[in-house]
Write a structure and sequence with these properties.
Elements (H helix, E strand, L loop, with lengths): L22 E6 L2 E7 L19 H11 L8 E16 L8 E12 L2 E10 L2 E16 L8 H6 L1
Antiparallel strand pairs: 1-2, 2-4, 3-6, 4-5, 5-6
């Protein structure tokens, strides 16, 4: 599957406004790159410094974590993902409407359903944030049968 042909919403239980990835640029062995175009019409800008809007840092971290989804097999459906830990968070610059965030994730390690990965976020080649994420993911079959997922099997 070529990244340009991916419908990002097919790979997440999230929906607007919390599906924060617009496009996947590339997927490789232990590496994924995704983008998010930040627009002035996004709902958080009405209250997050409306006179000088800034993309909220927690949402930037969420977009970065969502990029890590593409480090997992695309042959399985993501039923749920829960952040277990975020380490080494650094913000280097603000992100404002009109900018596109490019997020590059690479796998650090995994143990069962827990994966650890690092993400760098950039705007026009300038780093705006970096962090390491530990995420517990529950995956299921693409046919929508959650009974074959790790969680479904554990609860059966």
């Amino acid at each position: 599957m070529h990244p340009a042909t991916l419908n990002v919403s097919d790979f997440f239980p999230h929906r607007h406004p919390f599906l924060l990835i617009d496009q996947v640029e590339s997927i490789g062995e232990g590496r994924a790159v995704a983008t998010k175009a930040v627009t002035r019409t996004e709902p958080w800008f009405t209250g997050h410094f409306p006179d000088r809007p800034v993309f909220p840092g927690v949402l930037l971290l969420e977009a970065m974590a969502q990029t890590g989804r593409f480090l997992n097999s695309l042959d399985r459906r993501l039923i749920s993902a829960r952040l277990a830990r975020i380490d080494s968070v650094k913000f280097f610059r603000e992100v404002v409407p009109g900018e596109t965030i490019r997020m590059e994730a690479w796998r650090i390690g995994e143990l069962g359903a827990l994966s650890k990965f690092h993400v760098d976020a950039n705007v026009r080649g300038e780093r705006c944030a970096s962090a390491e994420f530990s995420v517990h993911s529950v995956m299921g079959e693409l046919d929508g049968d959650s009974s074959t997922s790790e969680l479904g099997s554990a609860l059966a």
